[in-house]
Amino acid sequence: MWRWFSTLAISFALLASAPAENISLTGGTVINPRDGRIIPKAVVSIKGNTIEDVSTAAEAKPAADARVIDCTGKFILPGYIDTHVHFFQSGGLFTRPDVVDLNAVRPYAEELATVKRTLPDTFARHLRSGITSVVDVGGPLWNFEVRKLASETAKAPRVAVAAQLISSVARPQLDLGDPPIIQIATPDKGRELVRKLAPQKPDYIKIWYVVSPDSPVEKFRPIVKAVIEESRRSKLRVAVHATELEAARAAVEEGADLLVHSVTDKPVDEAFVRLMQARGTTLTPTLVVFERYSRTFANKLELTPEEKTWGSAEVIASLDVTKLPEGKVPSRINDALANPDAVVERVRQTYEIALKNLKTLHDAGVRIATGTDAGNIGTIHGPSIFREFQLMREAGLTPMQILQCTTSNAARAFGGPTGVKLGAIEPGRLADMVILNANPLGDIARASDIHAVVKNGVVYPAESIAQ
After folding, report:
1. pTM above 0.85, yes or no
2. Which residue of 75, 163, 188, 341 is 20 to 30 Å from 431, comparing CA positions?
3. Alpha carbons 204 and 197: distance in angstroms, whole number
């Protein structure tokens, strides 16, 4: 059905068949954010793709045929998990023509073809950043083929997916025959789309609860209710985009499993906090994405060193709005360039609310799962997670708390039979780990000082992953 995926699968399937072997990681300090346990001078025994044992050097009984990898002075953590990405988007300037129409500069069909062609490279950039699993929270039907390709590619994260977004608003600019976003006008149409998607076994059904004067909270709520009810019948979880407090409240009341953004319009109230606690709803804050569109348009984008080094050079080059041809600059970009200080101030105001809300909910015991919304304009696939860490730290989370959000909490959000095997360094878990050169508990910035990444029991020196 998807010829280009078949070609990629043939090219990369051999890479996924690395022979299983016994490995012992010795001498490193294991950090388990799930329970805060720290094991100095540990031995992690891996058999095939599974962690067989975690012990101290004195207790260890490594297999006789194990390949020993000396991790003295290193720090071993569960692989990072980004619970909000979009693989149908590149992160470049031309990836959302519904936001800024630049078809006159680069046709969207050409952009999408490049996105598909470079998927293996995008996968590798996530792995280079220590990200061994991701949740793609919505896109075209070919998202299911993305999940399949990732499972057949060694240098790729594990991928959970949602497919087409069930939306309160239309985005016809993205429809090239397989639209990622579908406006739904009635509850029955919402149920119909869930039934259409269910046979593909999506990891989530995604609702795009966008509030506007034409689509107030209460107008779309019956559709949210119907979609969640129909998803429950198929035993499917539901993720909801809701950045306004009242939309988020309605989504949680109707039974959403995952809120995929922070509330940014006002501080959360005590009733909302209690609701999140009672329902056990997970929040993915996606703090980084809130600055990236506007800063890009205002030519005020400040990428991290990790993004500049490990992000796609082609994508990053596209983000320079000053290089757009004269006469082909959309008004939204022209307006931002004309008053960049106002743009930066709006970003500051957004973070004043979003960071406070994250701290309030985290302190109340609401489960937080790290996510970036990578793929949106300016939000770079892979290394943008380290900007997310910076912002979580600014919100007041400790390094251990940030790492817990990125491992064990995120594994819960990934979910399914795979999710229960992720997020911790314990016997029986999948051997997905990141090996650091420095202790991130003293400074979360050290979480990007990656020595090697272990995915599915295969150890990749960091510099060998993405070129």
Report:
1. yes
2. 163
3. 10
